[in-house]
Amino acid sequence: MNGGRLPGRRIWLGRCAVGMMLAAGSAARSAAPAPDAGQSPPGFAPLRERGAFDLALGDCEAAIEQLVVPQLGRLGYARQASSDATAGWTQLQAYYDQVLGSDWRVQSQFPPQHRGFKLRVWQRSGWLPQQPVFCAAWLDERVQVGERSLQLLVLAASRHGG
Questions:
Q1: Residue segments in the chain with a per-residue pLDDT below the cut of 50
Q2: Residues spanned by the domain of 14
Q3: pTM of this prediction?
Q4: For the chain, what is the domain count?
Q5: Residue 124 near residue 31, CB atoms below 8 Å
Q6: What is d(CA 4, CA 145) in angstroms, rounded to the nearest whole number?
């Protein structure tokens, strides 16, 4: 008697698995995509200049590599700069909270204050492994490049897609 019920149970389990995969695929498509680290936030542009500040930016990227990558996966980096004196860390966080939407969560296991920079890490919510990650690191000190005073920012985003 048990032998007669097993094939029906297997079919039911197979249908459940297909339904779950379709629902997961639909949810992944409707969630906000992972931003590109090279896409500048308002008031910022890719940093093309080189200078003494490269060491601070490199330290920031190395810290992200040590903190975030082992837990959340590989990241691609982009250096950004703003000459806008009103650019602020709080406004930048609010901008990305809005752009990323409710499907993304701040990862509180990463402390926000570090030596020389502030860090915020977001990860898209979901039950599938390797959810996309986005990081913003705000250097504490503005730097002088020629006549301009620049606010520097490092953005990092998942390399495994969004």
A1: 12-13, 16-30, 162
A2: 1-30
A3: 0.77
A4: 2
A5: yes
A6: 78
